[in-house]
Specification:
By secondary structure, the protein is of the alpha+beta class. The chain has 3 domains: about 70 residues, SH3 Domains (SH3 type barrels, Roll); about 60 residues, Roll (SH3 type barrels), CATH 2.30.30; about 40 residues, no CATH class. The strands form 5 sheets. Strands 6-5-4-1-7 form a 5-stranded antiparallel β-sheet. Strands 13-12-11-8-14 form a 5-stranded antiparallel β-sheet, with no helix packed on it. Helix 2 packs across helix 3. The protein is globular, with a radius of gyration of 16 Å.
């Protein structure tokens, strides 16, 4: 069975308790495979990049139908800022529906208008984000040229400059060495 991460930053834990060791973080909009239910309300999952951990069921939209429908939609990724508010209207005065970190995945709806992109959230709600915050969601390496790809990886890693260390982290809230490498590669379409 599959599920969609439905919180901005989702802890993949070592055990089915919030007090457990952080193994990794999955970001909003990522699809995970459910492997088992080790305790009521908790799932052992595997990410698309093969990390495993335990996630609270409260942080997921569970079901193959929902995950497959989400996977079929066009995607954009929060890339050009550390965080992105999804707003209820295409103006800064809209109420905040969600705040997503760099790496969070959204589905664009239509074309941008006046600097705003309408987006669909994983739960089906729609909101708006400044178009300039979004980047392409790559499912394959963005370049086959080795030098171009190397520079893109360095540029992606540099987006996290100044982020403090967090064991198991992979967001602007805190990142570790493997999180930094995986996010640089993910932003460039390699993971």
């Amino acid at each position: 069975m599959k599920a969609i991460v439905n919180v901005p930053i989702c802890a993949l834990l070592a055990a089915p308790t919030r007090e457990s060791t952080l193994e990794d973080e999955a970001l909003y909009g990522m699809v995970v495979d459910i492997l088992e239910e080790p305790a009521p309300g908790w799932y052992r999952v595997r990410t698309h990049y093969r990390y495993e951990g335990i996630i609270s069921a409260d942080d997921l939209i569970v079901g193959d139908e929902a995950a497959d429908a989400w996977a079929a939609l066009p995607k954009k990724i929060v890339r050009n800022k550390n965080f992105c508010d999804v707003l209820s209207a295409p103006k800064v005065q809209g109420w905040i529906m969600a705040t997503l970190p760099r790496g969070g995945i959204l589905s664009p709806v239509g074309q941008p208008e006046k600097g705003w992109q309408q987006v669909r959230l994983a739960d089906g709600r729609t909101g708006y984000v400044p178009e300039s915050i979004l980047g392409e969601y790559h499912t394959a390496p963005l370049s086959q040229d080795e030098e171009t790809l190397r520079q893109a990886l360095v540029d992606a890693a540099m987006l996290y400059r100044g982020t403090h260390y967090r064991w198991g982290g992979k967001s602007p809230m805190g990142i570790d060495c493997s999180g930094l490498v995986s996010m640089a590669y993910m932003l460039c379409g390699i993971l």
